[in-house]
């Protein structure tokens, strides 16, 4: 979505993007060295093409879903408004001022940490598994990761099209602070490029992070450190979405369900195809 | 249609009343056919990203309504969806939004006259009807001076009494700019036709703002001196060294932020949901006359004259050599076509006329428009005073050769019943106007670009008297509006010199943030809109004036001005707050004080018991659980 057009207009956008991706890249490099290790990586490069061929259909599926996602997000809002199911009031009626209570913990240092987690930490959490599982002996986690992400996007996108829901910062100005965007206004230009503010239910940040962590826990024998890092990071991402005023608690709960459910679906699909083979 | 409304309302009922106070009771009352049910309602408004002030007002009202036993839910919607529901579908209970204020009080006539209730657009969206108010509204447009002022005072007294809608406050628009880059004309808002036409690049643009640290300071005069004295012309090309290259934008572009992305998707001057103040299109479409520094001046017209002894006939002479942006010449026939077209965008091809909702109020002043010659137009007005008649001269003139083909039912006529024309719904992203700026491109949800129209009459440099200050027309090489997701992001872009000014008005918080940034100044202008609470009189209990008055007494303007606005904003009891027509005196004060806040004024704290008794006095009862009951 970050087109050349907008980058001309918004050099601050390029700066934010560089910082977010730069942070994730540094984390990715460090984690690759520390968790995967040079020897495993070198070995993987030899047999890598086989594993890639094996996983290609699954990675292809993910690519197709991401492509559909990109197209559908353009027309999605119009369909949502035509359906007219505005869930914002229902969600607020369910949880009330929960997010406001979460924000009572706010300190400048915590805001800085959680903003970084929300932006860079999230990108790192989702991309590292591809590096790690590409280097692993077993190709199953790689397939599982691709299918699980695809399921997250497919179901998440369906919800986005079906429901209109604005986040707490949009319904409760003055009560819930838009911490990320009021502390770092330039980041809103970036996230505004990626997300539409009517799409908060469920939290895809949460669901994808939970999926990544769930798969990390499965592969703890291969990458024990990653299981710990991913779990902590996923929890931090989920918390940050509420802390920053972006998501409702309800979105996060739905995100956890979606994240776990997507892994189960991935298991079923990968298992079935392996059995067929 | 009615089934979707039902289902949506029942969802809201579930959200509001059901989930907070138990579904069972509501179910019981339905089953037992008790016709009194707890009132649950929705307050439609825009989300905080779009207009935090509106969202906060809606939240304020929702919590106070909950205190008096009404299950109120705030429903945030995008701008265009809100306008569609309020102005076209009339599908709302209560809404909170901006009301655009016009200079001449005659804007109240289409807003409140009962004849406009069934139509679309900003014409009586409430469905309010009061025959005696109707005749007062008709009378004021024929009157002048103190007679008109007296009629308008009576109208306002009645409006306060009946509360067809509740005005809250009219803040001053506040825009931020970098004075070292652009010098804006005094006395007008930045985001206005006169603002853009009067804007001048500060002569030493590049040296002053971009290379401060690399160029010897003595080479550049102090920026403050520059911004006040350099009102001359555009910078000479030689004075702009290309030493800083991180800005690939054209050197002499005026770069603005807008918060409203609708113009990037629709530039149709006749559209209702996509238009608000219409400033962008004021640059693109000219009209016969323009209010310039408070006086209506001939614009596309070279001159006009009232017929001798007949104050209802105006002869307008067009300027010579006027051209459309596509190069076609403009003739009197285009003007006559425009007035015919806005009164019926189907041009007689359907059973009923399909007027442009946006201009119905102004079009209603005119009886007929005829092209007397190639350059002369004769306009016959109904019984209206000259200042009111002049409002009709601000209607944008449209090219007949572009719009005539769209005078047909939409291709979705099976959906809209065949009573909507293509002209009203087309996107018009390549508008052919005759204004001082021409649209060169749009990117959906990102930007709109314009450039000066070199054949515009202002570009000729030979203007007389009043318009001479605009000689040469728009002085930059191009004008660009970039959509920003929020006020905060706009201020950030301004701070990094990625834009020159904000077209969007800043909320109180962002205004404070902008004032703290070095090199940024905030300019305010006089109020252009008023925040208000609108009621749908087509639905119970909002058709009951006693109910509306009770709701109005939940509004603590003093508190809201301090907490939601910036403390200096004028609270508004009358929609004419920005005019000189707000009455003074005992009768007015009494009418206003009858609607005093029921609580500790200035704190926003409601006296719950007294507030409930106000509703009881209005004839409403409460259930054992404290829910306000209405007859469905």
Q: How are the elements arranged and paired?
A:
The complex is a heterodimer of chains A (277) and B (632).
Chain A (H helix, E strand, L loop, with lengths): L3 H6 L1 H26 L1 H46 L4 H8 L2 H6 L4 H27 L5 H23 L5 H4 L7 H5 L2 H9 L9 H15 L5 H20 L5 H28 L1
Helix pairs in contact in A: 2-6, 2-10, 3-7, 6-7, 6-11, 6-12, 7-11, 7-13, 11-12, 11-13
Chain B lengths: L1 H20 L1 H9 L4 E3 L1 E6 L2 H20 L3 E6 L2 H10 L5 E7 L7 H5 L18 H10 L4 H18 L2 E6 L3 E4 L4 E2 L9 H6 L1 E2 L3 H6 L12 H7 L23 E6 L20 H6 L4 E4 L2 E4 L2 E6 L6 E6 L13 H12 L16 H4 L2 E6 L4 E6 L4 H4 L10 H4 L9 H4 L5 H4 L11 E7 L3 E6 L25 E6 L3 H9 L5 E2 L5 H9 L4 E4 L4 E7 L9 H8 L4 H7 L6 E2 L14 H8 L5 E2 L4 E2 L1 H10 L3 E2 L5 E4 L1
Parallel strand pairs in B: 2-3, 2-4, 9-18, 9-19
Antiparallel strand pairs in B: 1-26, 4-21, 5-21, 5-22, 6-20, 7-8, 10-11, 12-13, 13-15, 14-15, 16-17, 17-18, 23-24, 25-26
List its salient traits.
heterodimer; A: 277 residues; mainly alpha; Vanadium-containing Chloroperoxidase, domain 1; globular; B: 632 residues; alpha+beta; six-stranded mixed beta sheet; five-stranded mixed beta sheet
Question: How does this structure look, described?
Answer:
The complex is a heterodimer of chains A (277) and B (632). Chain A is mainly α and 277 residues long. Chain A has one domain: Vanadium-containing Chloroperoxidase, domain 1 (Up-down Bundle), CATH 1.20.144. Helix content of chain A is 81%, strand content 0%. Chain A has 13 helices and no strands. The two termini of chain A are 38 Å apart. The model of chain A is unreliable at 1-9 (pLDDT under 50). Chain B is α+β, with helices and mostly antiparallel strands. The longest helix of chain B has 20 residues, at 2-21. The model of chain B is unreliable at 1-25 and 205-247 (pLDDT under 50). Chain B contains 23 helices and 26 strands. A 6-stranded mixed β-sheet of chain B has the order 3-2-4-21-5-22, sandwiched between helices. In chain B, strands 16-17-18-9-19 form a 5-stranded mixed β-sheet, covered by helices on one side. The chains are: A mainly alpha (277), B alpha+beta (632).
């Amino acid at each position: 979505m970050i087109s050349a057009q907008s980058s001309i207009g918004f050099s601050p956008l390029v700066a934010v993007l560089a910082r977010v991706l730069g942070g994730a890249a540094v984390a990715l490099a460090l984690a690759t060295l520390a968790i995967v290790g040079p020897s495993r990586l070198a070995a993987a490069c030899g047999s890598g093409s086989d594993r890639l061929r094996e996983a290609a259909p699954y990675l292809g599926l993910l690519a197709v879903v991401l492509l559909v996602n990109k197209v559908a997000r353009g027309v999605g809002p119009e369909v949502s408004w035509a359906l007219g199911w505005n869930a914002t009031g229902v969600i607020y009626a369910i949880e009330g001022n929960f997010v406001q209570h979460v924000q009572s913990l706010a300190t400048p240092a915590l805001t800085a940490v959680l903003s970084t987690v929300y932006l860079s930490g999230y990108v790192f959490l989702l991309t590292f598994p591809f590096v790690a599982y590409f280097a692993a002996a077993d190709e199953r986690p790689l397939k599982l990761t691709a299918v699980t992400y695809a399921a997250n996007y497919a179901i998440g996108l369906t919800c986005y099209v079906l429901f209109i829901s604005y986040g707490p910062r949009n319904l409760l100005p003055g009560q819930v602070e838009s911490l990320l965007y009021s502390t770092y206004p330039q980041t809103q230009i970036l996230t505004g490029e990626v997300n539409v503010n009517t799409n908060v239910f469920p939290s895809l940040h949460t669901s994808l992070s939970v999926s990544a962590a769930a798969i990390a826990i499965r592969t703890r024998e291969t990458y024990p450190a990653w299981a710990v890092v991913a779990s902590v990071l996923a929890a931090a991402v989920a918390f940050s979405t509420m802390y920053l005023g972006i998501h409702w608690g309800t979105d996060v709960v739905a995100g956890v369900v979606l994240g776990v459910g997507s892994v189960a679906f991935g298991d079923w699909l990968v298992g079935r195809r392996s059995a067929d083979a | 249609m009615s089934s979707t409304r039902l289902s949506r309302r029942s969802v809201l009922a579930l959200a509001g009343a059901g989930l907070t106070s138990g579904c069972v009771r509501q179910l019981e009352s339905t089953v037992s056919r008790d016709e009194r049910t707890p009132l649950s309602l929705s307050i439609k408004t825009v989300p905080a990203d779009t207009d935090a002030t509106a969202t906060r007002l809606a939240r304020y009202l929702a919590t106070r309504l909950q205190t008096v036993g009404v299950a109120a839910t705030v429903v945030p919607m995008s701008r265009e969806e809100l306008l569609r529901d309020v102005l076209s579908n009339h599908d709302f209970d209560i809404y909170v939004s901006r009301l655009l204020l016009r200079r001449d009080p005659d804007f109240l006539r289409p807003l409140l006259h009962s004849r406009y209730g069934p139509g679309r657009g900003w014409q009586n969206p409430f469905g309010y009807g009061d025959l005696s108010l109707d005749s007062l509204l008709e009378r004021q447009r024929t009157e002048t001076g103190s007679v008109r002022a007296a009629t308008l005072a009576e109208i306002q007294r009645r409006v306060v009494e009946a509360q067809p809608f509740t005005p809250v406050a009219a803040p001053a628009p506040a825009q931020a700019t970098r004075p070292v880059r652009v010098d804006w004309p005094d006395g007008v808002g930045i985001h206005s036709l006169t603002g853009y036409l009067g804007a001048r690049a500060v002569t030493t643009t590049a040296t002053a703002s971009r290379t401060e640290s690399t160029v010897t300071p003595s080479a550049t005069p102090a920026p403050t001196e520059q911004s006040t004295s350099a009102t001359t012309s555009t910078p000479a090309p030689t004075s702009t060294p290309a030493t800083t290259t991180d800005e690939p934008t054209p050197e002499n572009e005026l770069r603005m932020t807008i918060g409203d992305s609708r113009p990037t998707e629709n530039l149709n001057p006749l559209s209702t949901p996509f238009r608000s103040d219409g400033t962008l299109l004021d640059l693109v479409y000219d009209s016969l006359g323009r209010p310039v520094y408070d006086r209506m001046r001939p614009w596309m017209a070279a001159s006009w004259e009232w017929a001798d002894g007949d104050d209802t006939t105006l002869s307008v002479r067009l300027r010579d050599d006027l051209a459309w942006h596509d190069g076609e010449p403009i003739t009197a026939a285009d003007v006559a076509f425009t007035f015919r077209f806005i009164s019926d965008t189907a041009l007689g091809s359907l059973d009923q006329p399909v007027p442009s909702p946006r201009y119905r109020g102004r079009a209603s002043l005119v009886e007929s428009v005829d092209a007397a010659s190639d350059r002369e137009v004769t306009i016959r007005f109904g019984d209206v005073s000259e200042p009111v008649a002049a409002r009709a001269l601000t209607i944008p003139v449209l090219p007949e050769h572009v719009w005539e083909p769209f005078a047909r039912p939409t291709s979705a006529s099976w959906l809209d019943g065949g009573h909507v024309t293509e002209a009203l719904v087309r996107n018009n992203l390549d508008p052919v106007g005759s204004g001082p700026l021409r649209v060169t491109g749009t990117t959906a949800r990102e930007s709109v670009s314009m450039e000066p129209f070199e054949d515009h009459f202002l570009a000729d440099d030979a203007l007389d008297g009043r318009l001479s200050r605009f000689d040469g027309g728009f002085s930059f090489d191009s004008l660009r509006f970039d959509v920003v997701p929020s006020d905060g992001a706009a201020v950030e872009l301004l701070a990094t010199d990625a834009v020159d000014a904000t077209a969007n008005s800043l909320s109180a918080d962002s205004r404070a943030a902008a004032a703290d940034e070095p090199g940024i100044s905030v300019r305010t202008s006089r109020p252009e809109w008023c925040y208000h609470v609108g009621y749908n009189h087509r639905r119970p209990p909002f058709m009951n004036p006693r109910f509306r008055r009770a709701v109005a007494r939940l509004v603590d303007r003093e508190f809201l001005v301090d907490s939601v606005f910036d403390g200096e904003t004028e609270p508004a009891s009358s929609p004419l707050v920005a005019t000189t027509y707000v009455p003074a005196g005992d009768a007015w004060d009494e009418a206003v004080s009858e609607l005093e806040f029921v609580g500790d004024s200035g704190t926003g704290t409601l006296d719950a018991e007294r507030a409930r008794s106000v509703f009881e006095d209005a004839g409403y009862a409460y259930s054992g659980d404290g829910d306000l009951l209405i007859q469905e």
